[in-house]
Structures are given as C-alpha cells and as structure tokens.
Write a structure and sequence with these properties.
Blueprint: E1 11-12, H1 13-33, H2 39-42, H3 46-50, H4 56-65, E2 74-75, H5 77-100, H6 104-124, H7 128-138, H8 148-151, H9 153-160
Length: 161
C-alpha cells in the first residue's frame, strides 16, 4: 500500500509536460463548449497521491508518450506533486463553480488561470506550481527536508556542468 501511495521522485519532466498539454487542451475545450463535466477527470486527486500509478493519463504519458520524446529529463518530484495538487484544486474549484453552482463566469476565470499554468508547463517547461513550491521553501513554510534536491542548489549546478 505504501508503494501504491508513493509519488515518484524524480519525475520525468517530459511526461509532466505531456500531462499538462492534455490538461491544456481539455480546459480549452471546456471554455469553448461549456462542457464543464469534462472537469471531472481533471479533479482526479489520486494522481496527486500516487503520480501515474492510478492515473491513466499519467501512466500513458510516462510509459507510452514520453519515451518516444527522447531521453528522460529527471526533475525533483515534490514540486511536481505540489503543482499537481494546485491543478486538482483548480479543477475542483471550477467543477464546483461551473457544474454544481452554475456560476460559469467564476468557473471560466479559474479555467483561464488553468490555461496560463498548463500552457506555460506544456509549451515552455515553466511550472508555476514548482515556482510557488520554491517560494514556500525559501520563506520556510515548506521545510528543506521535503525536497533536498530543491534546497541544495549545488546538486543542480553539478548536474548542469
């Protein structure tokens, strides 16, 4: 059970970008059609708990699509998990607003933010959730022990040399 509920560390950035791309397309379809029910699979909180283990999209991105994009690009897992949590929270908020409360304007505002975040991740490899995670580490809200790779910049400098 512990293995089932463990999030991978490191994460293949290419797989994360594929997932973000599918999320981006899904959100754009929702905005274009008003099909707020499409938010249901995006609110899949098990993806935050387990990574690709219980997520068909995550599994396909990691095991089928990303390997065809070349060598893995490992990045620390904890910031990606945090970013997925932010995405699941945004999807849940938009689902409640749009599908349950019928406030499509508020849901569309959340979805607009989602387009920005998923677009930056999938197209430019800029992870807003990872940036927030780093900021929270710098101000001491998230302890360095949560992501030692994130806290020790010398590891990244050696890897890039």
């Amino acid at each position: 059970m512990a293995r089932l509920l463990s999030f991978p560390n490191p994460v293949n950035e290419k797989a994360a970008r594929v997932v973000a791309g599918v999320v981006l397309v899904t959100v754009l379809v929702i905005l274009a059609t008003g099909a707020y029910w499409l938010l249901i699979p995006l609110t899949f909180w098990a993806r935050v708990l387990t990574g690709p283990t219980l997520s068909p999209l995550g599994w396909t991105a990691q095991n089928v699509i990303a390997p065809r994009l070349g060598a893995k690009k490992p990045v620390p897992g904890p910031p990606k998990r945090f970013a997925q949590g932010m995405g699941a929270a945004m999807a849940t908020t938009a689902l409640v607003l749009g599908l349950i409360l019928g406030d499509h304007t508020a849901a569309d505002v959340v979805l607009g933010l989602f387009v920005v975040a998923a677009g930056l991740e999938s197209i430019f490899a800029v992870c807003l959730g990872c940036e927030v995670f780093g900021l929270l580490m710098r101000v001491g809200i998230i302890p360095a022990s949560v992501c030692e790779d994130c806290a020790d910049i010398s590891l990244r400098l050696r890897a890039s040399a």
